[in-house]
């Protein structure tokens, strides 16, 4: 949300409109999807009911054909005809068979021919189907039940029809000659698949749409007029793990598919309805809905543009006016802002004009007092610097005097003389001379201070000095090192229970910067305290205010004050760097220019 708030108002409005459009389209497509599922589900239910009725009709036709073949097979006239060898008698009996079979066909739709073929060569066919049936003779004779062929082409009345052959072997019965149970031939019924199982108008108006029968050889009826579609239908029907209800592609068209086996005739039935046909009306409704949304957006565009302009135009004038003020021309404060548009922007203009008037008055007052304030600030900085330099640690004086008194009781007077001499030099150095001395002079004062502390702590730590010759001649601020050394002794080495080491070094680097390091191997500083000190040091404001949280022993000047003195004198590029590791020690680095002209020149003390 924070990212959106930073965008332009125009962009935010466009994003809002786009979101509304996307939500509306998502709702339309969601409704379309849900409705599509309902339509497909209802179609599957309808197809399932239709296939169930189709299977029931197939079973009835199968039973009817089986019963006809059974009745004819045991009919005495047919039995005698099948074993008759006299041609004349067979001819007369054929006429009787014509009447019987015509009577059987009457009212039965789809029966094209009934064929009788005896083992003795006797042949009978009502419509000339003997040759057609004889092509299947080997399969028929080997069948132990009702034989059902695949789809075959049968020419009847000069029409080539798709047919199926139902056949059954015949055995003699009640012949009175001791030959009962002997195979005497077979009977075959040729049925028109279209008339028997489908309506006369069963052909589909569109390729690949409707109900299909697939025989055991993979032949498809009705004809799809497309080899690809026929192959798809055949492949789907013969997949062993194929679901009875599913969605798949036939001929590159996705649709709802149902497959059921027709075990009695060794075939299967497949229904296929393309989703495009199922969802045609829904697609039309979806298209109209989208067009309505687009039209609504177009009609809303004009008032939206007017509203956006009424909001943005005054804001653009306001931004331009504010930018002219930011450019720094004080004369713009006397100008009045005029905003035309909504009432809110008019109120903003009035308030801003009033504020600019107040700013203009305050600016004049500020200009009048700037010189006085600058002079006062300069005096304040001088006073602060003098104050920082003049502070002496009373606790240090107290501890030193206590040490002198203790030594006077236990040792000879020579040691007391040395201590008082060192202390006298330190006092004399701190109160006499100018504000700048050479680093060598500052280092001599530090050595006097460290000498006193070594006596006080009775050899608990040692100190080493490492300065280059050229660094000792660099002018530095007086009393700039003593507070840092004091900090190292009292906060680093004094709490340490073992022997400690203090290292003080100085050199001039390649940038002509004097770098002085005061390092101890004392107790170090905790991480959170270290971050707090470092953040204070990295503060860009060269404040001279005294922060008591960074004082060393009993209020003496702390590292922050030394850092501020350096930055106040030489700028933010110089100052103090504080590094510490808890339990390992602390290193404080001072940096200042090595070549500059100190005010008043160097004064030897």
TrEMBL record:
Per the record, the domain of life is Bacteria
> Where do transmembrane segments lie in this chain?
12-32, 290-312
Keywords of this entry: Kinase, Membrane, Transferase, Transmembrane, Transmembrane helix
Q: Which GO terms describe its molecular function?
A: phosphorelay sensor kinase activity
The Signal transduction histidine kinase internal region domain sits at 386-461
Domain Histidine kinase/HSP90-like ATPase: start-end pairs: 478-593
* Gene Ontology CC terms: membrane
Note the InterPro entries from the entry.
Answer: Bact_2-comp_sensor_kinase, HATPase_C_sf, HATPase_dom, Sig_transdc_His_kin_internal
By what name is this protein known? Answer: Histidine kinase
In its UniProt entry, the species of origin is given as Cohnella abietis
